[in-house]
Write a structure and sequence with these properties.
single chain; alpha/beta; Rossmann fold; five-stranded parallel sheet; 5 strands; globular
Length: 269
C-alpha cells in the first residue's frame, strides 16, 4: 500500500510539473508579419483601428481560431529582400517556440518592392518610360525569387507546429486608383501585368502579363495560403479609403476596416 501511495504521489507531482508546459502550449498565437500595412500606418490608433488588431479580435472567436494572444513583427518599409534578411528569422523563431502554437498568420509583403520605385528616378519622372519598365521588371523578378522563400519557409515551420494553421496573404490595391494621377495606369500594369488581370498561366504564355498580384496570388495558392485580394476592395476609391489625397498611400480607419472585412470574408470562403 505504501508503494502504491508513493507511486500515486510521484505521478501527481510529475503531472503538476508538466502542467505549466501544457498550459503554455495551449497559447494559440496570431502572428502578424509584413510591412507598414501590418504596422498600421495611417490608422488613427494603429493598435486598435488598423487591420491587425481587428483581425486579432476576429481570430479570438472559437469558430475562427480561438486565438489567445497575438504577436506583430511587422516592420515599416519592409520589402521581400529585407524580410528574408531579418523578419523571417524572428517569425520562424516564434513559430518554433515549443511553448506556443501559432495558429493564424497574416502576411503583407511585396508592396515596397514596387512602391520604392515611385520616389526615385527613373520612375518618379517617367513611369511609362522604358527605363522605369525595366526597373519594374527587375523588382518583380526579385519578388518572384523571394516570395516562395518567405511563404515556403513559414509553411514548412507551421507544418511542424502543433494544431491547425492558416496563413493569409494579401494582394495590393492601386494606391492611385480613381485619382487621375500619372501613376494610376502604370501602377495597374505593375500590379496586374499587361492583361490587367490575375492569371496563373500567364508565365507560360507571355511574361509581360505577370504583375505583383499575379505573383502573390499564384504563389500563395500553390503554397496553400488564403489569398485576400485587396485590389477590388479599394478599387477606384483611394481618395475615400486612403490618405493619398495628402500624398500618403496608407489606408485610413475606413480602409483598414475594409481590409479586415476582406480577410474575414476570405476566411469564411
Amino acid at each position: 500500500m505504501r508503494r502504491l501511495s508513493s507511486l500515486l504521489l510521484a505521478l501527481a507531482v510529475t503531472a503538476m510539473l508538466a502542467a505549466p508546459a501544457a498550459a503554455a502550449r495551449d497559447r494559440a498565437i496570431y502572428l502578424a508579419l509584413g510591412d507598414s500595412l501590418a504596422v498600421g500606418d495611417g490608422a488613427t490608433v494603429p493598435a486598435g483601428t488598423s487591420y491587425v488588431p481587428l483581425m486579432a479580435d476576429y481570430f479570438g472567436g472559437t469558430r475562427h481560431g480561438a486565438i489567445t494572444d497575438f504577436v506583430n513583427l511587422a516592420v515599416g518599409g519592409e520589402n521581400t529582400g529585407s524580410f528574408i534578411a531579418g523578419q523571417l528569422g524572428a517569425a520562424l523563431a516564434t513559430i518554433n517556440d515549443p511553448d506556443t502554437d501559432v495558429a493564424r498568420v497574416t502576411l503583407s509583403i511585396g508592396g515596397n518592392d514596387l512602391g520604392d520605385l515611385l520616389s526615385t528616378p527613373p520612375c518618379n519622372a517617367d513611369p511609362t518610360g522604358a527605363a522605369c519598365q525595366f526597373a519594374v521588371f527587375t523588382a518583380l523578378s526579385g519578388v518572384a525569387n523571394n516570395y516562395p522563400v518567405i511563404l515556403g519557409s513559414l509553411q514548412a515551420a507551421l507544418a511542424a507546429d502543433p494544431g491547425d494553421e492558416k496563413v493569409f496573404v494579401v494582394t495590393l490595391w492601386n494606391a492611385f486608383g480613381g485619382t487621375g494621377s500619372p501613376f494610376e495606369v502604370p501602377v495597374d500594369f505593375a500590379l496586374l501585368g499587361s492583361d490587367l488581370m490575375v492569371d496563373c498561366a500567364a508565365n507560360a504564355v507571355d511574361p509581360t502579363r505577370i504583375g505583383l498580384n499575379d505573383l502573390i496570388s499564384c504563389i500563395g495558392m500553390v503554397l496553400d495560403a488564403v489569398v485576400v485580394d485587396l485590389y477590388p476592395v479599394i478599387g477606384d476609391s483611394s481618395l475615400t479609403y486612403t490618405h493619398i489625397g495628402v500624398g500618403d498611400v496608407h489606408p485610413n480607419d475606413a480602409g483598414y476596416a475594409l481590409i479586415a472585412k476582406a480577410h474575414r470574408r476570405a476566411d469564411k470562403a
